[in-house]
Amino acid sequence: MPIPGRLRGLRGTGRQDTDQACDQRADHQGAPPRLKCHSNGRFGRRSNGRIRPRRRTSPRRGILSPGQCRRVRMASWNCKIDLRQPCWDGFRELIGRLDGAGFPDAAHLNGLLPPQAVSGGGAPLRFVAAGALPGVAYERHIYETGQVPTRECNWHDLFNALAWCRWPLLKAAMNAAHYRQLGEQGQEPGRGRESGRGTGRGPGRDALTLLDESGALVIARNRNVLQTLARREWQPAFQLLRCAWQGDVRVVLCGHALLEKFLAPYKSMTAHALLLHLDAPSLRGEAPLRQVDAALAGRLSAGELAAAPAELSPLPLAGVPGWWSGAPQDAAFYADVAVFRPPPAELRPAPVHALGRPPARCYNEGTCGGD
Hints:
There is one protein chain. The strands form 3 sheets. Strands 5, 6, 7, 8 and 9 form a 5-stranded mixed beta sheet that branches. The two termini are 41 Å apart. The chain has helices at residues 15-23, 66-73, 92-96, 106-110, 138-145, 155-166, 168-184, 203-214, 223-230, 234-240, 256-261, 287-301, 331-334; strands at residues 36-37, 43-44, 126-129, 147-150, 215-220, 249-253, 270-278, 313-316, 352-355. It is of the alpha/beta class and 371 residues long. It has 13 helices and 9 strands. The protein folds into 3 domains: 1-75, no CATH class; 86-198, no CATH class; 211-355, no CATH class.
């Protein structure tokens, strides 16, 4: 497993040593602890509070330079997040706005919310401590109050909050769809699996859950790439059409459990993707993402999106050009059938959704955020 990005330059530190550096707690004043460096690569406090790494003109394995020691000493809650990696596209600015001194709490996360963020029921959105809401049905509570229960020092809930900030319209539409489908299944909204009463779930809720937890959006101006992905023809999609991925295809994650997995990525990570064709001058920047957010919210509220899990296309993320650095992305790499599985004999390809301009009216009047 590669060393986390911000510590990748440390020579001779094993995974255990790096994790120890990441897990060091700040002192009572909020400053990172001062660390010392030993010849075996381990770290600890010095009684005088000063860092005295062993100096060498050519550092050997297991010995850290002064600059490397300072980088370890400054390690904070987000030291396992390498913002240079493409998986954080769309989230870099949000993560950068969080104070690195301590794990973000609900108050910090509320500062990231866009002004138009509301629940599926139209209530202003806020993150609240989960401990203050014992026994509350999750989707129902968000729909009716706008309060999103967020556990303290929990990566899963942190990335869920970031997904709300990144995709406020889509997440609210998903919340409304969950609430609506619970009623259609004859359950009181908010009851069922999430409250421990009953087990009724339809294909619509299953698709929503997959998109919410492990979803990815493949946004492309090149329709051929999307159709090849839908047919699960991995080598043509990732190799023969590789040049199209440079500017005509953009992959942005929306599943918060998938974001959490990128703290310790592995080759077989697979997303459940929506394949989106967007005829836009450029896919870079914020404007295309806001347009996609509004368009998907409108379609989901109209029942035109994610009606069943089969509408989501599997996407082996290690195959996306530039997304895997553990090995060359060559023909032998894509020949690994344990990751790039061949399609079944009777495959029904997932649909490719053509997105135009944001609709005039979204799932909730007054909340459209498109350009």
